[in-house]
Amino acid sequence: MGNVISAFWKGVKYKGGPGHYAFILHRLTGIGVALFLVVHIMDNFVILFGEEAFTEVLHLYANPVMRLLEVFLIFSVAYHAFNGLRVIIVDFWAPNSHVQRALWILVWVVVIPITIVAAWFTLAPIFGLR
Ligand code: HEM
Ligand code: HEM
């Protein structure tokens, strides 16, 4: 078991470096958003059982744990979108160059403020602040 874990971890770390970590986070956020989409289509489906049932489902999203997950969702959508643009730019116009590092920093400069603002609006009600 220990061998399997260390082999897996070696694979995850690969050669390291920002480009590789950018890719791992891109994959995790892509899979996360895709999984949410499955749940989200199902929660929309509940409208067919009537307004009351649908409203009850929507109230689940006001739960503190769900609110925290929503912040992760917004982070994931923002990171995946902006890092996706970075991947496209590097692939098409700057292959084999180091601008990918500078662009990754730019991705964070955009994504961190978006996440902070989203976290404020999403989490403040838990503390009765909004
Ligand atoms: C602004 C919208 C989006 C952009 C610009 C974008 C861009 C990209 C790019 C460029 C890749 C390839 C990455 C690579 O070659 O390393 C990718 C992969 C992927 N995307 Fe997106 N994407 C977007 C929206 C979405 C959405 C909404 C989902 C999920 C519902 C999603 C799920 C995925 C997944 C699962 C992968 C595969 C990741 C991997 O192979 O590691 N993407 N995306
Ligand atoms: C917490 C964030 C989100 C909220 C509060 C939200 C809310 C909603 C609501 C209220 C609807 C129904 C709209 C209507 O029929 O009038 C809807 C539909 C939809 N949303 Fe979202 N959404 C969120 C995130 C997302 C994300 C991240 C995606 C894509 C990955 C997405 C994809 C869709 C799709 C495809 C539909 C149409 C579903 C259907 O007709 O079955 N949503 N959303």
Give a written overview of the molecule.
The protein contains five helices and no strands. It is 81% helix and 0% strand. The longest helix has 30 residues, at 64-93. The chain is an all-alpha fold and 130 residues long. The model has no long low-confidence stretch (mean pLDDT 95). The chain has one domain (16-125): Up-down Bundle (3 helical TM bundles of succinate and fumarate reductases). Bound molecules: protoporphyrin IX containing FE (2 copies). One protoporphyrin IX containing FE binds at residues 23, 26-27, 30-31, 33-34, 37, 80-81, 84-85, 87-88.
For this structure, what is the CATH homologous superfamily? Answer: Fumarate reductase/succinate dehydrogenase, transmembrane subunit
In the predicted model, the low-confidence regions spanning at least 5 consecutive residues are none
Amount of beta strand: under 5%
Return Rg in Å.
19 Å
Examine the coordinates and then state which fold CATH places here, giving the name of the CATH topology: 3 helical TM bundles of succinate and fumarate reductases
Count up the helices: 5
Q: Could you report the average pLDDT, rounded to the nearest whole number?
A: 95
How many distinct beta strands? 0
Shape: globular
Compute the separation of the termini in Å. 48 Å
Order of helices and strands: HHHHH
Query: Into which percent range does the helicity of residues fall?
Result: over 70%
Question: Any idea of the CATH class?
Answer: Mainly Alpha
